[in-house]
Prior knowledge:
single chain, 316 residues, alpha/beta, FAD/NAD(P)-binding domain, seven-stranded mixed β-sheet, five-stranded parallel β-sheet, binds flavin-adenine dinucleotide, binds NADP nicotinamide-adenine-dinucleotide phosphate
Amino acid sequence: MPNPRQTRCLIIGSGPAGYTAGVYAARAMLQPVLVQGIEPGGQLTTTTEVENWPGDTEVQGPDLMVRMQDHAKAMGCEIVGDIITDLDLSARPFTAKGDSGTTYTADALILATGARAKWLGLPSEEAFKGFGVSACATCDGFFYRGQEIVVVGGGNTAVEEALFLTNFASKVTLVHRRDELRAEKILQDRLFKHPKIETLWFHTLDEVYGTDDPKGVEGVRLRHVETGAITEIPCKGVFISIGHAPASELVKDTLELHHGGYVKIEPASTRTSIPGVFAAGDLTDHVYRQAVTSAGMGCMAALDAERWLAEQEGVA
Ligand code: FAD
Ligand code: NAP
């Protein structure tokens, strides 16, 4: 690959937003380059069944993302395995530095860096990460065959993770800080009916405890949010499923952001605060955060980039 690598349209991110932008930008003859990042395929590669992708009653998340990648490639989008470590948006063409040593220059930029799992920030959570504490049931559930597991959270992810973990665990306890879940009703129904799942309301995780040699979790200490009473639950696995934060570190000092770090875009568009820079998907969206809405925004970003480039080139 030439260095620097110049493209009319650089797409950063390979989730539904990035790949859809790749399909549309390629079909608009922008010869886009898409940089995949550390998680090729994005968040859906960390789940199993996806039941709300239109056209597929049920599809495996990783399979869907391979199909999206193949689709973008077939349309002419160049897909690169690299991670962008630095972005200069102060002059055009924009400059992006890759971990591989490649520098990318782009006339237009589509940011689709999505979101990442949040952690509670407890020292004991950090100490046992990878040794019983995880944020990905699909990745790590298999290690807990026949064991007891605790899942923390009350959204779709927590409920799906709890249900999925019943494939391995002898018992799953879902711990939530309120007495109401924000997960979809259909998922709640499945959760409440499941014989292996118990729900513990009004509790937060205080501490994960375990052994040092071999390193592993033995249980959790939970605190009642009103009384402060501590309850211990023995378990071998702890899954933290408390949501995701937008991956906006690259632009935190250059683009306008909302509270929580979501990139601001103009209404009914994907235009950011810098002309020529567009943003799509979970990076910008704290409301819907779905594969299909991210894909829709990826389409919008490519169309916005195409129109903006045409205006710059005086052909609009
Ligand atoms: P993401 O999928 O988050 O992808 C972000 C991409 O950006 C990744 O490829 C990453 O490698 C890349 N990236 C980040 N930083 C850099 C960088 N510096 N350089 C280069 N690349 C970078 N939604 C549904 O509609 N249905 C479901 O059933 C469903 N199930 C889910 C299950 C789980 C466990 C989770 C966590 C989420 C689920 N979601 C579901 C939500 C859905 O996955 C997201 O809404 C969607 O993936 C967001 O797409 P995105 O393209 O915005 O970003
Ligand atoms: P979420 O909807 O933001 O839910 C996070 C949950 O964690 C909430 O219940 C929250 O409690 C709890 N929480 C947050 N911080 C906490 C803390 N410090 N201590 C204890 N609990 C804490 O996140 P998500 O479940 O990851 O879902 C993210 C998005 O992806 C959503 O839009 C979701 O619809 C989507 N998604 C969709 C599917 C699907 O369609 N099947 C599957 C997975 C995810 P409170 O409720 O008290 O705030």
